[in-house]
Amino acid sequence: MVLTSLVIDILTTSVPLRLLRPLSPSHTMHPPPSALASRAIANDFLIRIFTGLLSTAIYGMILYMSFATILPSTLATRFEGLRDLSFVYKTSFLPMCTLALPVGFAAGDFIFTPATEAREPTADAKKKPFNPVTATLKETFLHHVWDSSRSKVVIQRTATLVAVCGFNTWLQTVVTVAGVENGGAAIWAAIWSVAAVLVGAALWWVGNV
Asked: Does residue 66 register a pLDDT over 70?
């Protein structure tokens, strides 16, 4: 039952992300050249494969670690309809990655590709130039994170992914799994949300290498 819910969660998470892809100019049939800051990177097949596999590995790792740590006790105490938990101890990393392939590649396309397109804004003459010597910790953080168009895209899209995954997973679990408590569904949703945050952080790092 839980494995069925896992498959449903993966499909119902990856499909909305696929539907949101046209919001990015590079996913249209004829993207305007001005919309692409790094067209070669955004459309590179090997880079898309790499970012998709990276995202998939992160989802697989988080799922595997959760099955090895917090999920057994959660399933035993908050999922009343379960009669057999032996499958929890038979899970391994590679099968988890295989199940996570759809959502991993969807998340990679949803976050990384639009971030590579982001164009840095033209310098504002009225804005004080950033000076790393005199800048405070807050100013340094904002300069390297929020003042970057790519970072903004990654943060905004990661937040969207966390919200979609978290709420969708909680709702799907409550609706499809008999005997589940709201707290159990929330823990299951939190696992997906943590994975989404780590995916966003990893893709941000890749985009800045």
From this structure: yes
